[in-house]
Amino acid sequence: MLLVLAIFLLKKFNYTKYIKTSFKSIIKAFVFMPLSLTFTKYILDIFKIYNIFLFTDFKNIIASWNKIDYIVAISQMILFILVALSEEFLYRITLYFKISEILNLKSNILKIVFSVILTNILFSIAHYPIRHYNISTLFEIFITGIYFSYLFLRSRNIYLACMMHFYYDLPILSTIDIRYHHYREIISLIISIMLIESYYIVKHYYLRLFSRYEQS
Predict the structure, then answer these.
(1) Which single residue of 56, 67, 152, 182 has CA 20 to 30 Å from 43?
(2) Are 53 and 171 contacting, i.e. CB atoms less than 8 angstroms apart?
(3) Could you give the angle at which helices 23-46 and 182-215 cross, rounded to 10 degrees?
(4) DSSP state of 54
(5) One digit per residue, pLDDT tens: the chain, 216 residues?
(6) What angle do CA 71, 26, 118 make, to 5 degrees?
(7) CA pair distance 210, 120, nearest whole angstrom
(8) Cα of 118 vs its chain's centroid, Å
(9) What Rg do the C-alpha atoms of the chain give, in angstroms?
C-alpha cells in the first residue's frame, strides 16, 4: 500500500523525473552493493567482528531451516524489497523535494541540509509506532536515513539507496538467529561512502585527463 502511495505522489508532483530507470543505473546499484559488502566483510574479519549478515556461517543456518523457514524468509525478503522501494521513493524523493520547494532559503546548501534533516526526522518518527523504538534507536534510524539521502543525492540513483536500505533491513529476518553488531552498520556506512567518493574522484581526474588528451 505504501509503495502505491509513493508512486502516486511521485506522479502527482512530477517527481518521477528524478528516478533513473535506465539499465545502467540499476547495474550500478547491483555492482555497488556487493563491493560495499565485500570490503565491509574484510574489515570485520580483520578486527575479528562476528557478522552473520555478511554471510558468516550463513550456509549452516540455511541447512537448519525447514520448509516453513524458507517460506517465511522468502516472504520477508520480498516484503523488505517493497519496503525499501516505497520508503526510498517516499522519503528520499517525494518528501525531500516537496520540503525543498517549501523552504524559502536563499542558500542552496542550507536548503539541501534542512531538507535532508527534516525528511529524516519524519523518516525516524514514522518507524516509532512499528516497534516502539527508544530514543537511541530512533537516532540510529535518523543517521541511517541521512546516509540513504546521501546515496541518492550524491549519485542521483535511487536504486543505490534502495539496495542498501534492503541490506540494512535484513537483521529483522525472523528465521535467522540474530547476533547483531552496530559495528556492521557503521563500518558498512563508512566504506560505502569511501567507495562512492573514490569513484567520483577517479571519474573527475579521468575526465580531466581525457579532455587534455583531446585538446592536445
Answers:
(1) 152
(2) yes
(3) 130
(4) G
(5) 889 999 999 999 999 999 988 888 999 899 998 888 888 888 888 877 767 667 666 777 777 888 888 898 889 899 999 999 999 999 999 999 999 999 988 899 999 999 999 999 999 998 877 655 678 888 889 999 999 999 999 999 999 999 999 988 887 777 766 555 667 778 889 999 999 999 999 988 888 887 777 666
(6) 85
(7) 39
(8) 18
(9) 19
